[in-house]
Design a protein that fits this description.
Elements lengths: L9 E7 L3 E6 L33 H17 L6 E4 L11 H15 L4 E6 L7 H7 L4 E5 L5 H8 L8 H9 L6 E5 L1 E5 L2 E4 L3 H14 L3 E5 L10 E3 L2 H12 L5 E4 L1
Parallel strand pairs: 2-3, 3-4, 4-5, 5-6, 6-9, 9-11
Antiparallel strand pairs: 1-2, 7-8, 7-10
């Protein structure tokens, strides 16, 4: 089984195909995974690997490690495009997420004032007031919506809560009043006898309807780029992503393709 990719709280900087030179912040354990989704394509592997024994890093630990990293990068004359909350699970599950975001914003202003702060979230905590408040403070509030149809949503994202359905996610994202970026992976394949394909006309029509309701600042379309825990998934080509993007652009949606 593919397992955890990030073994530290602060990692990188690495080049992100979506965001540029990115310094990562992993608010989940360094030796396990905690997530409210269990996506078939997750580069960190399935939740079955367990949460590990280290637990989530404290707010103070994140702040101290980030400050130390910023000091090292400044001394070495390194540049930075973005600071990205991502890692071994869903960052907004951290019990002090809002306070951590505030710390990161202060340190960013002190050391790398031109860098953007981004959060990659699966949207499952977007109904929590403290999480919403924090997400509205960052530069790039990037929220996942891979399918607007319940069957595909549950097959592809495998939410831990049986009550998590796309209509609830869409309703939560609408409350950001356009202050968000929606991230959608386009993928097809097989898993445990189920065919999965969110590139069909029915899927794309449902996604377009959702985008029009949410009215995001932008939609990010991408496909798988690395090994996935579910082995029989197919990468959607850049050419097909562009065709899908144009379909959404024709309806007035701003779309960025990352391939």
């Amino acid at each position: 089984m593919q397992t955890v990719l990030f073994h530290s709280t602060i990692y990188g900087p690495i080049h992100s195909r979506r965001l540029g030179m990115s310094l990562g912040i992993n608010l989940m354990p360094n030796d396990g995974k905690i997530c409210s989704f269990d996506c078939l394509y997750c580069e960190a592997g399935f939740n079955a690997q367990g949460p590990g024994k280290d637990g989530v890093p404290s707010r103070d630990a994140v702040k101290k490690q980030l400050k130390r990293k910023f000091e090292e990068m400044t001394k070495e004359g390194q540049t930075l495009d973005v600071i990205t909350f991502s890692g071994n699970g869903e960052p907004t599950l951290h019990p002090e997420f809002k306070k951590v975001v505030e710390d990161v914003l202060r340190l960013r202003t002190q050391y790398f004032p031109n860098a953007k702060v981004s959060v990659l979230s699966n949207s499952t905590m977007a109904s929590k007031p403290a999480v919403v408040e924090a997400l509205l403070k960052v530069d790039n509030n990037i929220l996942k919506l891979d399918s607007a149809l319940p069957h595909t949503f549950r097959l592809l994202n495998r939410p831990v809560s049986p009550n998590c359905l796309p209509e609830g996610v869409i309703a939560d994202l609408k409350r950001f009043n356009g202050q968000c970026i929606v991230q959608t992976i386009m993928v097809r394949g097989e898993y445990e006898g189920h065919h999965i394909d969110n590139t069909t006309d029915e899927e794309l029509d449902a996604l377009l309807s959702a985008y029009l309701q949410i009215n995001p600042r932008e939609v990010m379309l991408y496909s798988i780029d690395r090994k996935t825990p579910a082995e029989n998934l197919e990468k959607v080509s850049k050419e097909e992503l562009e065709r899908i993007a144009q379909r959404f652009r024709d309806a007035g949606i701003k779309v960025q393709v990352n391939a």
